Each structure stands twice: as C-alpha cells, then as structure tokens.
Amino acid sequence: MSVSSFYVENFGCRATQADGAAIERQFRDRGLDRAGAPTRADYVVLNTCAVTAAAEQDARAAIRRIRRSNPDCKIVITGCYAQRAPGEVAALPGVSQVIGNSHKHTLAQIALSGKSETHIAQNRKFILASDLESGSAVARESTIDAPPNVSSSAYPAEQFETGRSEIFVSDIFAHTELLAAPVFDSANERTRPNLKIQDGCNNRCSFCIIPSLRGRSRSLPTNAVVREVNDLVFAGYREVVLSGINLGRWGRDLSGQALPGHRPPRFEDLLRLILAHTRAEKLRISSVEPMDWTESLIRLVAESGRIAKHAHLPMQSGSDRVLRRMHRKYRPWHYREKINKIHAAMPDAAIGADVMVGFPGETDAEFEETRGMIEDLPFTYLHVFTFSARPGTPAANMPDQVPVHISRERNRVLRELAAKKKLAFMRGFIGRELEAISLSTPYENASGEWTEALTDNYLKMRLPGKRRPNQWLMTRVLAVEDGTLVAVAGEPERAQQYRPGCESH
Questions:
Q1: Whether the predicted pLDDT of 162 surpasses 60
Q2: 299 has a pLDDT exceeding 60
Q3: Which of 48, 224, 226, 453 supports an S-S bond with 81, CB 3.0-4.6 Å?
Q4: Helix, strand, coil % over all residues of the chain, rounded to 5
Q5: CATH top class, domain 5-174
Q6: 456 φ/ψ angles, rounded to the nearest 5 degrees
Q7: Which homologous superfamily does the CATH classification assign to the domain defined by 183-427?
Q8: What is the CATH number of domain 433-489?
Q9: pLDDT at 498 over 90
C-alpha cells in the first residue's frame, strides 16, 4: 500500500508561510510524504490570504487550476480567506473541506479523518461561522442532517449550499493556539529560516481585517522560542529571522513568565535570552510597529554584532489626518522621531516601511504630506500598497473612496521615490566592506557564474563564482548593477563559537 502524499501552497505574508510550514509538519508527523507538485498529491492544502481582494482571487484561481490538473485529490482550504468567508469558499467547485484559522492547529487530523464522501453528504458537521462574514465574532457548532432546512436569518442558506464540503470554523477569539515551524527563504531550504513567534493583533486599524481572522495577540513561550532557535542552529543554519503579525507585542500575554517588577516580558527581553542561551550567529527582526521600537530595543540592535542592522517600521501614511482615520496609534512626529533615532544609532542600517495610498478620503494635500515625509526620512526601501476595501472593516464603508486611477498614480510616485532612495543607499557602499550570507547555489548569466547573497543590512548581492549556500562572507562592493550590489568576497568566516551566557546586553 502506497503512502499518501500532501502538498501545501501558501499565499500572502510570512505568518501565513509559517503556518504552512507547521501544517506540513502535522502531515509528516502522521507519516505522509510531501509531493513535489500539487498534481502528484492526494491532499492539497491551500493556505490562503485575505488582506486584499486580489489575494482572495488568487486563491480561487488556484482552486480551479488544481481541480483541472488533479481532479482526484482532496482540496482543503485554510487560512484567512477560509476564516473570513467559509460559506463562500465551501461553495467553490472542487473544495472538500474549509478549515479556518480557528482549527488550523488540527488541520491534518481533520483532513485525514477518513470520512467517506457519502458520510460527508449525509452527515455534514458544520462549525458555523456565518456571523463572521458580517463582522461578528460569534460562532456556533452543530451537526446537521443533509439537506438542512434553516429559516433563521442568523444562518444564511449559503452556509449550507456547499455540496460535499465540510466547514470547520469557529470564533477565532476563543482560540489561543499558535503554530510554530520554521520557513526557509530559499527554494533549497538551506538558508535564513523564518520563525514565527507571535500571532494575532490587539490593534484595530480601520482598514485591517487581520485581527478578526487571526484573533488576539499571543506569543510563543520563551522556552519554546529558545528551543526552536537552538534546533535551527544545531541543524546548521546561520541566520534566523524572527517574525509575527505584531512582533513587537511579543510577551505581553505571558503574565506567567513575569520578570522582576511583575511585568510581562518584552520583545527585547526575548532577544537578550536568545543571545544568551543559543549560539545563533545572526538574528534578523522582521516588521515591528513604531511604538514598539523602544530605546532599549534600538540600543540592543545597534550594539549587538549578532542582530542584523535592519529595521522595518510600518508607516502607512505621513498625514496626521489619515493616520487618525486609520486608527493608527502614533502621529507623524512620533514616527519621524523613531526613524531618526534608529538611523543615528545605526547609520548603515536598512530602514524600510509599509505605506498605503488611496485610503478613503486621502486628498492630494494629504498624499503630498506622505510623499514629503518619505523624501525627508532615511528610508532604504518601501513596500507600497494600494488601499483595498475589506468587508467587515470600518474603512470599507467610509465615504470618499479614492478613484482607482488616482491610487495607481500615487503608488507609482512612491515606488519611483523608493527606488531612487534605495539606489542612493546602495551606491554609498561602493568600495566598502559588508558582511553577507550566501543564499543559493550558483547560476550563470552572460557575465559568467554567480552566487546570490544578502548583506547584514538587507541588500541583494552577486558574488562571482561558485559558493556554497549558508556561508557568512566578508565582501568588498565593486558596483551596483540592476538593483544589486556586485562584490568580491574572501574566504568564508568561521562560525563564531558562542556559548550560553556569552552575550547579555
């Protein structure tokens, strides 16, 4: 008897990718093999995103593609789209099960439950989330004989017109589970694992659907984080990226791990513990909200040789009025202060931001405030997004929606400005030495054979010749070509022999 196989396809952010890695671990722990492609898998899991309408459209297209190419597989839909609109997803042809974020931690167990198609059709178990689709966090559990006959307006008929699909979704705020498994940056899984240590968000930004889909902020306990990092170090990885939905809020829910002074641990406390109790050569911090870049966090990142000189602070807008409509918790002058303090402490650091254009009511003058602020600040890159109305969010019903053509033009303006700032930053390193980690096996172009690398301060680099992945190198920058540093490197640096307790800033 052949062993069943699975395939997980992820959409969206690093947190979603981390969830996908944890789902893969669930299937492997149950003896299944990972298929090389969805066309060869018995179980295909689509781990979806709902941050934009386009993300949900991508998931629907993937369902159609997989149904055509592998009609015999079981298609399981999970993630944020499944949590937001389970009835809509379950009604799509080819979908076998819809398992929301609320039940993602037991996805493999549910998918492998062994129920026959006849059983599913005759005794469909629904954990209903109809109210979630209208913005409420109320859910009910029920076992219903098919075909159901529901008259209550609280349970729209579309929740049940799902063919043979099962829905497993409930109130996300009633769940405290956090999936944790490393995600790898490169296809060959040899470099820069990404470890999600926090999930959910207690903020209520008016444009964001994520809190209602991922629940309250919750943290991976300290000992679990240290164990995961040590496992990665022992496996040979030399840079670990720490990520989360609202990473800077890590620890605020861990009252049982209170530090002296009876306060819950903070993110910078965790960093110190990782430095002291693991041999991780390099930690990289993903996005942290501006109010969580404390003086002590900035000082720690600046002073430690084992933390990458890289700061990403979501900005969204440079207009005070727009930030207030967004329900963001800082003002433009707060944001400027944080960026300038980081830059003063780490002049060579990569500093990036998320910026949104086309938020409802954004005037030309308000956009100009954002553009001018970006021009003034020492950003080295930007992620520019166009506002996408999400059902159930306050912003979706705000008046004065910005026309699409205006939003697109504003997006273009900011992307061009970001490209100019990035190029100027990169050119400033010509002739200088930078530490970089090799990322992949060599490739060839018209100029010969090259190896990709990434600098400590988050710049892409090309090195001539063949180099093994996962090697820290001291490089000298020669030029900038096509948005990439061109450099030469010496011999790989020897792994630094850190011992527990060797660094405790």
A1: no
A2: yes
A3: 48
A4: 35, 25, 40
A5: alpha beta
A6: -55, -35
A7: tm_1862 like domain (3.80.30.20)
A8: 2.40.50
A9: no
